[in-house]
Amino acid sequence: MEPKKIVIVDDEPDVLESVAFALEAEGYKVVRAADGYQGFGAVRMEEPDLVILDVMLPGKNGYEVARMLREDERKGVFRGCRILILTARKVDSAERQEFLETWSGADLHLYKPFELNALTEAVRTLIDD
């Protein structure tokens, strides 16, 4: 059986590498991207089971990338995937946060700082049968 594929999009090299290392140790195939446009292209090309998106990215932010992926999924451009948003960004109100979470179409949000164990558990919940 092929390992599940995950695209990780984060512009912080330390975060990108530590998350990739932890997920590869769990047996996942990982593709890395460092900005919103590169991440969007990697997801469209790789058709992963999951994309992990940082919010604060060069180019397009994680919420925008998630929204673009969901729109392409609805149009039938690609099969779609689960989306996990990672962010340290706090917004000014619970209503605004709820709007962004709903608007993006992401399946789950985790807030930085996070424990790698919590992340790997979230990944298992989202994509493992």
Description:
The protein has 129 residues and is of the alpha/beta class. The chain has a single domain, classed as 3-Layer(aba) Sandwich (Rossmann fold), CATH 3.40.50. It contains five helices and five strands. Helix 2 packs parallel to helix 3 (62-75). The protein starts with a strand and ends with a helix.
Identify the notable features of this structure and list them briefly.
129 residues, Rossmann fold, five-stranded parallel beta sheet, 47% helix, globular
SSE succession: EHEHEHEHEH
**Uncertain residue segments:** none
Total separate domains: 1
CATH topology-level name: Rossmann fold
Which CATH architecture would you pick? 3-Layer(aba) Sandwich
Shape: globular
Give the structural class. alpha/beta
- SS summary, helix count: 5
Biggest sheet strand order reads 2-1-3-4-5
Strand content: 15-25%
Short structural description:
This protein is α/β, with parallel strands linked by helices. The chain has 5 helices and 5 strands.
Ordered list of secondary-structure elements with their pairings:
Layout: E1 5-9, H1 13-25, E2 29-33, H2 36-46, E3 50-54, H3 62-75, E4 82-87, H4 94-104, E5 108-111, H5 116-127
Parallel strand pairs: 1-2, 1-3, 3-4, 4-5
Helix pairs in contact: 2-3, 3-4
